[in-house]
Amino acid sequence: MDNLSLLCLGGCREVGRSAFLLEAGEKKILLDYGISLNDVPSFPLHISPSEIDAVLLSHPHLDHSGSLPLLFSSRVKPPVYTTPLSKAMLEYLMEDMMKISGRYLPYEEYEVREMLDKTVAVDYKDVFRIGDVEIKPLNAGHVPGSCMFLIKLGRLKALYTGDINTVDTRLIYSAEIQEILAESPIDLLVVEATYGSRLHDDRRATEKSFVSSVLDVLENNGLVLVPAFAYGRAQEMLCVLEAYKSGFPLYMDGMARRISPTLLSFKHYLKDPATYESALQNTLFVRGSKERRKLLKGSGIVISPAGMLKGGPALFYARSIAKRSNSAIFLVSYQIPGTPGDNLLTLGRIDGEAEKVACSVKWFDFSSHVGKDELVRFVSAVAEASGNSTKVVIVHGDEASSASLETNLRDMGFNALLPRNGDLIKL
Ligand SMILES: [Zn+2]
Ligand SMILES: [Zn+2]
Q1: Which of 67, 113, 310, 390 has its CA 20 to 30 A from that of 213?
Q2: Which residues surround ligand 2, an ion (CB under 5 A)?
């Protein structure tokens, strides 16, 4: 008999280590298998690779992929399905993770290589099957190549959103909501809630205020550091700056330097490949410490990871720029409390430095996650198109954001659930 159930292995009431086991009839399908890389890494609940028929990877951010190598140390190795671009990015992000945190992790290069070898590239809307289960990847609008998975077994349908954004950015198109509505009724909706309790600023207004703040600094012969995640946000900032054509030198450093040109081999994931290409042509890629020191003597904009100043060239630049009153550090991603980026915003200090910074520090809301209002609209649309029969499982949000979304949805009469890690949800 057809049945669906969801075992929550990680990522409930938290952001990090996302992992869910979907049992669809005879098949067991793992949805993401992430890691939380805090001071001590934490992993999802254990699952044996012999219990899994396949893994669906929504996108390669480590909170969705970082524990995958754990599944590749034994003889049984499940296939991992993700988009071709996500597969390429997975390789970069794994390499970076092993370099930075490898000594704390219970696997080695061998498991990472085996995992990459078993990764199968499937594109948006290319339906594939695992036994009786039919799977359709759809654009999630979060980072280039990210996907949601629509999973069908007989008449039952589940949608796993992974991380989603329902508005267009400069870099990519928003999540394919119309496609989901056309597939309704959806019986089980597993939805992210990073911003379950927070509205986003208007995107265009944010862009304008960011660009005008950048220009203020440059007209004063200062330097602007834009710490940004190497994959997604760094390229989005390139596109924003290209759109407003500042005319000032634009530098890119760190892992973003490798990832940005790679995206050109996957143009169909980009909203405007021609503009992206011209943005890249106007970008100076920094190679090595000599070029870094030279750059610090002039004026311009530097985009570099890490987005929360946890390391990478961004931290090197930040230490120098912090001492200059004519320069600025503009943070453009969510800053997890306690990270160096958050400490800079709240305490006005670079970690490890006694002095407060002399440069200007601002934060801009360039999020790639759906905001509160759009999230409620998205879930309501799916549930209503499904005759209010949808079981909505809220994941990937801290306790406050997830609970706020749950209350909101319940007040509207929807069947919303807020599970804990370890919970089993049956249809
Ligand atoms: Zn993500
Ligand atoms: Zn995530």
Answers
A1: 310
A2: 63, 163
